Structures are given as C-alpha cells and as structure tokens.
Amino acid sequence: MNQTVIEAKKITKTFKEKRIFEKLDFAVKKGEIVALVGENGAGKSTLINVLTQLIPKDQGEIHYFNQEKSLLIDRERIAVMTQETAKLKKIRVSEIIQLVRSFSKHPLPYDQLLHYADLKEHEQSYMEKLSGGQRKRLGFALAIASNPDVIFLDEPTAGMDSYSRLKFWQTIALLKKEGKTFIVTSHYLEELETVADRIMILVKGKFVFNGSMDELRQNRGVSEIQFYFDDLKDKTYWLSIPGVESVKIINQKIKLITDDVALFLTAMQGQFEQLKLLTIQPNSLESLFDHIQEEHQA
C-alpha cells in the first residue's frame, strides 16, 4: 500500500484558451480506490486522458511507479475502461476478448475475464446484440485483459442494472485485495461513497478536497438536517445558528450541514412548531458535494 503508482506535480491543461485544470498536485498509492468527483464539465475525463497520455498536458510532471522521469506509460500496466464500448459487427464476445488478450505478454486467463465480467452466458453472442449493461461489462473485461496494475474507470456502471452494479463492485473489491489500483469517476455518488478509500473533489479546475469519506464528514459536517420552515429565512439567518456549517434552500425546503445536531436543536427551541417534515441523517457524499458546489458557484 505504500508504493506510489502515480504522482502528479503541478499539471495544467487548457483547451482553446479555457483552463480546464491548473497546477494539480496529488499521488495515488498501490491498492487504493480513488474517486474523482466533479460536476459535468469539471475536467474529470480530461484529467484521466492526461494521466493516461491519451492527450498531452500543458505543464507539470506525471511519474508512474516511482520512476524518476516522466516517461511514456506501459500500456499493459495502466488501462482505461471508457464510458463507451464500441459495437463491432460480426464479432463475438469470445473473439474480441481473445483478440485483446493476444496483444499482451501476460494476460489474465480467458475464463477469469468472463467470470469477472459475468459474461459466461454471452460468450458466443455478437457484440451488437449485447445490451448496454452487457457491453459495459465487456468493456471492463477488455480493460483488464492485460492484467494491468492501475485501472481507470470512467462511469463504469452507467447502463448496468442494480444487480450488475453490485457484482461489478464486488469484483473491484476482489481485485483491490490483489493489489490493483483504481481511479474512478461516476455519477452514482452513493457507490463511490461506499467503495472509495479516498475522494478527490474537482471544482473549477482545482481540488477542493482530497481525503477519505470520514475526513470529508469531519471537515464539512457530520449530519444533514432537512425540513420545511413556515417563515422564509435567508442563508445568513441559518448560518448564524450554532452548529450550522452550510445551507442550501430550495423553495421552502432547508438543507443544513452540521457537525453538532444537538447544538442546532437546542438553538431552535421555541421554534420547533415551525419545523415541518424534519429529518436527520448522516451526511452522504452526494449531499456534501451538493453543498460544496453551492459554495463555489460564482
């Protein structure tokens, strides 16, 4: 777990004079599952493309596997599962997996890839006949065919049903135990909250957080309180109440992040009759990210 597999120093990328991200510094350790979180257009896919040398960076250095110099990556050690898997015509699942395996010196066994992707029943199916979820699972099998050390997963479970998503993350957990490293983007933040060892939140081209889910809760507030309030109050009012870290108001619905529920409820004594449909729950990654986005809106 101590070996650094990727280290980025001051990396910057610009497209047509638009700065996508600027001077990003981070490292990824062997055996980690790292979640890369950001809104659409935040630069997550661009960052993956830069890290995997599919597009060039403008500035900075990226070191792989403790190499002293920033060299070309070994495509057998670093792999990418992209958002889309091509629908090739007249080629079977078994044929495309065996073809991709043939490009590698030490590929994973064919049967193991079928098992990991849960495609045993579809190995003789043509690619164009697969459902969206089955094609995503095939994309995963192709990504790990070379037996890579680091795998980038770009929206890996989009299009999968709930059962397939569960089995997919069970497979990721198994591969993590074998020392594989994963960098993941997904709109299913509840999945990332459960599986990720570390979360990096990208907002306006910079990381505003880099740490574990527990650290995020400690940093941003442990609980979320939701309710409707009879009197319309602005954010300044709610932020003035002890224990409140951040606020989001949608119509009359109030969402508060707090690190001390008891302190908030004590401060609201005498106004309980105005709190309608009150709920208190542990903070989720989705709610915390929602509040972070709100704070950084220009």
Describe this structure in words.
With 298 residues, the chain is α/β, with parallel strands linked by helices. The chain folds into two domains: 4-216, Rossmann fold (3-Layer(aba) Sandwich); 222-282, 2-Layer Sandwich (Alpha-Beta Plaits), CATH 3.30.70. Helix content is 31%, strand content 30%. The protein is built from ten helices and 13 strands. Strands 5-6-7-3-8-9 form a six-stranded mixed β-sheet, with helices on both faces. The chain has a four-stranded antiparallel β-sheet with strand order 11-12-10-13. A hairpin with a 2-residue loop joins strand 1 (4-15) and strand 2. The chain is globular. It starts with a strand and ends with a helix. The model has no long low-confidence stretch (mean pLDDT 89). Keywords: ATP-binding, Hydrolase, Nucleotide-binding, Transport. GO terms for molecular function: ATP binding; ATP hydrolysis activity. It comes from Enterococcus italicus (strain DSM 15952 / CCUG 50447 / LMG 22039 / TP 1.5). Residues 6-229 form the ABC transporter domain.
The tally of beta strands, per DSSP, is 13
Shape: globular
Residue windows where pLDDT falls under 50 for at least 5 positions: none
CATH-derived architecture of the largest domain = 3-Layer(aba) Sandwich
Listing every helix as H and every strand as E from the N terminus to the C terminus, the arrangement reads EEEHEEHHHEHEHEEHEHEEHEH
CATH class of the largest domain: Alpha Beta
Q: How many angstroms does the end-to-end distance come to?
A: 39 Å
Number of domains: 2
Structural class label: alpha/beta
Q: Which percent bin holds the helix content?
A: 25-40%
CATH topology call of the largest domain = Rossmann fold
**Cα gyration radius (Å):** 22 Å
Number of helices: 10
**What is the makeup of the main sheet?**
6 strands, mixed
Q: Enumerate the strands of the largest sheet in spatial order, edge to edge or round the barrel.
A: 5-6-7-3-8-9
Estimate the strand proportion. 25-35%
The CATH superfamily of the largest domain turns out to be P-loop containing nucleotide triphosphate hydrolases
Counting copies of identical and different chains, the oligomeric state is single chain
Mean pLDDT: 89
